[in-house]
Amino acid sequence: MSGDAGDRVADLERRVAALEAAARDARAGNASGAVPARTRDTAEDAPGTPSTLPADTFWALEGLRERAPADEGGGVLFAGVVRTPDGATWEWQEGHRADELLGRSWEEAGAALEALGSPVRMMLLREVLHGRGTAAELAELAEFGTSGQVYHHLRRLTAAGWLRSAARGRYVVPPERVVPLLTAIAAVQR
């Protein structure tokens, strides 16, 4: 292998090993709680953030900096370990190079984001995560409107990939969408 290709392979191997270690740590319960973010370049903490934070507060950010340095474009990482109200446990991690995200066409993301733009669809997703999975169960809840309106919203969420039709007319949030959905919810919290 040429030096350049060999260096890239070695770098990828280091990144994969680090991501696997981070996943093991998260499963072992070493994750810190959610803390308002701050940047390395400012001495000021985010509003409401204690002035002295534990050294491992930004463990995920520090790991990301090592794997995707800002001077090389940086990156975005989201991960989660979730036990949903219906008793299922999901673990997910996804990372992207920032330059790839910035260079990609964002129009394709519009349909998936638009599907989340309806308060009724968001409530439907929450109910499905809580175990109400059939259109009939969802239509029983007055806030969703008629059964025709419920089906309309379920079709939109399914087309955008936020729901999947499972056995016996049940809808589920696909496992690979649980953490991204909760990440989107967390991203808009104030």
Structural notes for this entry:
By secondary structure, this protein is mostly helical. The protein has 2 domains: 3-103, no CATH class; 107-187, Arc Repressor Mutant, subunit A. The chain has helices spanning 3-27, 59-67, 98-103, 107-115, 119-129, 135-139, 147-159, 175-187, and strands at 75-83, 89-97, 164-165, 171-172. β3 and β4 form a beta hairpin. The termini are far apart. The model is unreliable at 26-51 (pLDDT under 50).
Broad structural category = mainly alpha
Which blocks of ≥5 consecutive residues have pLDDT under 50? 26-51
Query: Helical content, roughly?
Result: 40-55%
The biggest sheet amounts to:
2 strands, antiparallel
List the helices and strands and how they pair.
Blueprint: H1 3-27, H2 59-67, E1 75-83, E2 89-97, H3 98-103, H4 107-115, H5 119-129, H6 135-139, H7 147-159, E3 164-165, E4 171-172, H8 175-187
Helix pairs in contact: 5-7
Outline of the structure:
By secondary structure, the chain is mainly alpha-helical.
List keywords for this structure.
mainly alpha, 4 strands, two-stranded antiparallel ribbon, 2 domains, 190 residues, Arc Repressor Mutant, subunit A, elongated
